[in-house]
Each structure stands twice: as structure tokens, then as C-alpha cells.
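DNA polymerase IV: C-alpha cells wanted.
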Amino acid sequence: MDEAGRSDEAQEAAKDEADSPPGLRKIIHVDMDAFFASVEQRDHPELRGRPVAVGGAGGRGVVAAASYEARKFGVRSAMPSVTASRKCPDLIFVRPRFEAYREVSQQIRAIFARYTPLIEPLSLDEAYLDVTQDLQGIGSATRIAQMIRAAIRAETGLTASAGVSYNKFLAKLASDQNKPDGLCVIRPGQGAAFVAGLPVRRFHGVGPRGAERMAALGIRTGADLAAKDIAFLRAHFGSFADYLYRAARGIDLRPVRPDRVAKSIGGERTFFADIHAPDALRATLEDIIAIVWGRIAAKQAARSDEKVVRGRTVVLKLKYRDFTLATRSRSVAGWIENEGQFAAIARSLLEDELPLPAPIRLMGLTLANLDHGDDARAKPPRDEAQLSLL
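Answer:
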């Protein structure tokens, strides 16, 4: 999550922590290594050891996942395919097979369930597990993480990295520490020291532009962040300040929530140079439409039933060079359940704003008011088309 999700992240964390009893937990964060690309390399031996991108080639195509061989050239997920091809001329594009990824994801989920019922999936390829009271009475989160990684390798032919700690924030940081195929453990009492040495860009929720803004304030590492008092952080980062204050100290009281329901699915792009020209804005929007709908397709593939992931509201976000944020939303009476509907509304929202009053540094797009199969929660909101400046 980059800057777009900062307020939601802070509000969600505050609610979770308010509902959570104090005390240490044993948390594991498991993250598959280059999941989509690794499945393709496993199933197609001719791709092994070669730079692979899962996604559409050329035109409006976007990279959904990149193998580690491709990442060496700077190819990353959410990157336009034309850019990826320039960075890595030998890049091999493979169309996504979400049904195959879903099948493997279910295998992995079954492995998790041998150890705990407290599993919070974040996507097809990563999840939090609370093993404070594990089903097999093993007692050691580190040992359980080792056993899970070994079982994933033996049963799927794929590798996973894992982070073990006493809260979710630290476990997620740890899982990324020794990728690929790595394990990192942050024990009680070590969290603040571990975080102190990290660049703030590693903090969940801090995007490239956020890191630049922090650097301008003299904040480059966790230690720099911890040196700022809460009043300073609130003055500069608003509702995101409380999250940053706790994170810099290795504090996170959120529980693992196996019943967590996604309220929206979105994506965004932050630009190295601000953009203003209508054609550039339209091209960027097309990239983001492809990114978001790819995530919606992945969410669909992760479902245990056959229900279509659908929503009622499309939200366009524009962040100007002075950090002024504009959001534009449109809801429909029925459901938005295919890419054509989603794209048409997104394009209309942007066209209604052109020409923009100033260049923007970020554009985001979200499908919100999702249907989760519960009619009581699926009440249609009133139609709206409002502009809010925050």
C-alpha cells in the first residue's frame, strides 16, 4: 500500500487495536516468492532461469508479477509492459492463469490450517497466521514457520519466505528481510532496534513520494522517525501520524482477523515527474485500470465459491504537486462486475475533470462498496458524483 491507503490503514489499525487485548502474540507472515511467475516456471520448465513477466505484452499491458531473473533488470509488478520490455529486452510475457494460482493458493491455505485456524489471507500468495495457541502443541512459532515452508516446497514445488515476530507489522517486515526462500525472526524486545535501522520506505504504507517527503523533514530511517514526537508527526502527516509513531517503536496491537472483509480493491501510480497533459493522464488511467482489474481477477480466483467479485462505486483519486488530494466517485444502482463497466466509469470520471487545474503527482483508482454475498451488507448507496478536496 502506498500513500493512497494511508488514512484507511490508520483507521483500520486504530479500530483493530481498540478491539484487541494487550499481550504478546506469536505471529507468522508467509509470503510466496514471485508467486505467479514461479507457478509458470514450475509448470513450464523451458521458462526456468529466464526472465518472466506474467501479464499482457505491449500496448496497455501491465506486469502482474515478475520472476527474480526479471527483477534483476528492474522489472516490477504494476509496471507498464512496454517499460518492462525496454528494461529487459529478453523478457518473456506469459498470460495469467488465475485458476492455476487459485488451486496452488488453496493447497498452501490447507497447509496453514494444520497449525492454526487463525489465518488472515492478504492475497493469493500471502497471509498472517496467529500460532500463539497452535493446533499441534508445538509451541515454537519459528519451528512452525520452518515446517510450513518445508511443506510448501514438498507439496507445491514452490518456495516461500516467512517472518516470525510478536506482532503483524514486524512479522511482515521480517518476511521481506531474507527473500527469496528465507526466514527471519524478530524476538520480543528486538522490535524497536530492528525497525530503527530500516529505511522508512520499508514501512507498510510509505510510498516513494511519502519517503521523499519524509527525507525533506530529515526522516530517512526508523530511528529518525522515532526521534520525532507525536505532535510533529500529526502536524505533517495527519491521521497517518499515530501509525507511524507506533511503527517506529515496533508496536502493533492488531489481531490476526480470519474473517476480515475487503471493503475495496484499488491501485495507484506515483510519478517521478508530475503530469498534466490530457493524453498522458488518459494513458496513465488505462495502466491503472489494468492493474486494478488484475487485482480484482486475483481476488476472484482466491474465493472458495464461484461468486463474482463486484462493486457499486468507482473512485478516482488525484494528488496534486502541492499534496492537495481530490477524489471523484460515482456509484451505480446495479453492480459493476466486468472490466468494461469499470473502465467506462473510470474514464468518464477523468474526462469530467479535464483539463486539470494543475499537474498531478499521483493517480489512483478503486472499486468500492464490494459485494461479499451478504444481502444485508449489500445495500446500494445513493447515486453520487461529488468532488472533495482534503
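The longest strand covers residues 264-275. Residues 1-21, 374-390 have pLDDT under 50 and may be disordered.

Cheers.
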